Amino acid sequence: MKKFVNGIDSMLQQSLAGFSRCHADIVRLDAGSRFICRSRKKAGKVALISGGGSGHEPLHAGFVGTGMLDAACPGQVFTSPTPDQMLAAAEAVDSGAGVLFIVKNYAGDVMNFSLAAEMYGGDNDTVITDDDVAIDKSSSAGRRGVAGTLVVEKVVGAAAERGDALPALKALAFRVNAMTRSLGVALTSCTVPAVGQPTFDIGDGEMEFGVGIHGEAGRRRIALQPADTIAELIVESILDDLGARAGDEALVLLNGFGGTPSMELYLMLDAASRQLERRGLRVSRSLVGSFVTSLDMAGCSITVTKLDPQIVALWDAPVHTAALRW
Amino acid sequence: MKKFVNGIDSMLQQSLAGFSRCHADIVRLDAGSRFICRSRKKAGKVALISGGGSGHEPLHAGFVGTGMLDAACPGQVFTSPTPDQMLAAAEAVDSGAGVLFIVKNYAGDVMNFSLAAEMYGGDNDTVITDDDVAIDKSSSAGRRGVAGTLVVEKVVGAAAERGDALPALKALAFRVNAMTRSLGVALTSCTVPAVGQPTFDIGDGEMEFGVGIHGEAGRRRIALQPADTIAELIVESILDDLGARAGDEALVLLNGFGGTPSMELYLMLDAASRQLERRGLRVSRSLVGSFVTSLDMAGCSITVTKLDPQIVALWDAPVHTAALRW
Fold it and tell me: For B121-153, b where at least 16 C-beta lie within 10 A, e where not — what string?
């Protein structure tokens, strides 16, 4: 395993120290390293809190700041944070208007956030993201929450910033999640530091179609395809499920998994946009970068959100975080 | 080779198409794909033009926009752009105040920019960046220009934006370059698409200390070290050469080479900052991300710029590009 680390046990703590040091104008790290929160609390707004296992950076800590999250709770790599982290974060950032927990649909995260929500004394509610079309809707665990979570956090973050109340924010989060679908492909495996070996084996001529952001198996293992074919396969899977039609306005998030350079991501954005346009969709917003990663995995995901004027306005609203700023 | 491409010949063009599509509010792609320039020309300012081989994205196209570059000329992967690209860019963006070419010190880039500078009819000058301390100062080709080029482009870009004249900008660029040093390490090789094989072999327990941004051999091949030791080795090499002393104020750019996830980069930022502080320097500005990359190479470089109030103010000035925004 080749990584920049001093030791497995210190890795998360030292990375958070670097993150909070670098972005001290935006965030602060809790003294117990239980959460990252905004350096300045904003009174009267609903607090948005997310979190999950580390290894997906900049998700979620990179999205803490004006116009997006109030706090993020990082677990160890690919491991859910604990309820006490979420409770401590809620107590720190709740300014009296309540807390909305935004949780990716993984068993550990859902269980721990649910415990925290029950234990927390203040007004709170939870929304679960589950945008990954690689998983069948009828599967018992439901669909995984992947890169579409960024879109939910951005849009709902803008609404929270302008002062929307908790029930309205929950309804909005639910609606944005319902308008959003993602699917990812991996060309190589990630390597979890504590394991020291690639999570899965994959041949030189293969790709994992429908991979999860922890290197979970996807829909199928197929031969590596040209970029245009990959984009077509993904866009078809997404649009079939989303029920998007010619004339719809769409946002595309072309997300890298960590090991794929931006030259390839922009090429994939072009390929995905052409596929969407061929089907009559109008791609009016796009975002390219490694935002919801899987450590060092080479690969990318495409997320499509159907837009309406309300969502567009909230997407366009100013955001000032470590990883997103406009 | 596992990459998101349709073909080697179309790769650059399709990536540029995606880039200009995604950032149409900031840049436009020349009809002949010879350069990326600002979507809105600003009258009366000196135009800053950079460029070089592709594969280092977001350098340089990602730095085109308000407060930084006016145009960037992308060559094929790891190949210099041609003089006609630079000439076309100069003709497009020169608003009468002249052109400053910012060129990384590689033989092909220096030769082609020098030809373009000679052929160009308008007022122009050139500055060459050479911040890589891995190369001995006395080597015949001189030092390579690496991630420190970002610092030069940001600081000089801010000065150009406020209206500084060409001679002052050239002097400033020279001064910032002289205050800046970088050194990089690679854990894996990059793979050039047209070659299809890793540029160099490296063992599981090895790292290349002093690697170049095209995978060029560094100072030496050494055993993989803990992050703190790597940071110490790099910071020592840089400070010895830079002549920085206790009490100096410094900017640190912790730059990823493309295949290293941000969790490790922030950990390295923390490690590098602690090393600098141990030596009495004050790290007042830091930037972390994969900005000057080498395709999919795992590795990172540390850049240190000695700061003074003028450079700090220009660094802090607003910038609005695809890759840097504040």
Answer: eeebebbbbbbbbbbeeeeeebbbbbbbbbbbb
